[in-house]
Amino acid sequence: MAQTLTDIKQLLATHGLHPKHKFGQNYLHDGNHMARIMDAAAIGPGDRVLEVGPGTGALTERLLDTGASVVAVEVDGDFETLLRDRIAHACGPDARFELLIADILAGKHAIAPAAIHAVGDGPFKLIANLPYQIASPLLANLVQNHPNMTDAVVMIQKEVADRLAAPPGGKAYGALGILVQAMCDVTRVGVLAPGCFWPAPKVASAVVHLRRRPQPLTDNPQALSALLQKLFTQRRKQLGKILGRGTLLPAGVGPDARPEQLSVEQLAELAALTAPG
Fold first, then answer.
1. Average confidence score pLDDT of the chain
2. Which domain holds residue 232?
3. Distances from the Cα of 143 to the Cαs of 179, 192, 216, 236, 248, in angstroms?
4. CATH number at residue 268
């Protein structure tokens, strides 16, 4: 049975726990939105899922009900007993569930090796209500360095969701969204008010679906990422001033253009033209 807000509060109270702000623990208790996440994820038997921040296991239980295998990574060690007891009670002893008590990020630029080892060498999907502070570096690392991640359906801060799908020319258009769009098709699943969570965050949230492109716009996402960091820390400057007037540019792009004016396709081509070697 799906966890309600009353269930979540009772589980925490039983285990002497409370939401911790430092870990971004805001629990989704709106069953309709959780069902939309599941519908977008299209999880089925045999699928491999990476869940980050399982909390009380509300989403974990739904994922396991589909027949999928779940690797859940929880940074807060205080939740280990709750999760193991809850999953065992709801699903029985199940080899399809693996819990790692760890930080999913091994620094800003890498995923924890234990998590990657646990999901294995085959395709997997990231399905998670992500703590806001880790969403950007986690998604950037997965789309850039882990091609076995075929899909991500994630709850994130609406501002980050806007950046992931932003078109050229606006303030939201930047390095993260361009990298993600070069590697994935981005679809917004829905927007959630703060009241869908407990405790309620101060900002709105959104669910987005990243589906890896069959043919990404670049075969060297690391080179694209490095170029984007260089360009978008100086986004109002002209390309000629950032890269040098003699730099080879894509057809139709002049040295007086600014980074934010270029399409994702043009930036991917520029990365290929300027990559070392």
1. 93
2. 221-274
3. 8, 24, 10, 27, 27
4. 1.10.8.100
Do 147 and 225 lie in a common domain?
no
Q: What is the 3-state secondary structure (H, E, C) of 59-127?
A: HHHHHHHCCCEEEEEECCHHHHHHHHHHHHHHHCCCCCEEEEECCCECCCCCECHHHHHHHCCCCEEEE
Dihedral sign for Cα 117, 118, 122, 124, please: negative
pLDDT at 109: 81
Whether residues 164 and 182 fall in one domain: yes
Read off the pLDDT of residues 88-132 as tens digits, 9 standing for 90 and up: 666 655 678 999 999 999 987 899 999 999 999 999 999 999 988
Please give the Cα distance from 41 to 18 (Å, whole number): 29
Same domain, 186 and 230: no
pTM: 0.94
pLDDT (tens digit per residue) in 210-219: 999 999 999 9
| 178 membership: H or E segment, kind and range | helix 175-183
Distance CA 133, CA 151 (A): 21
Shared domain for 252 and 192, answered yes or no, is no
Mean pLDDT confidence for 169-197: 96
Number of domains, the chain: 2
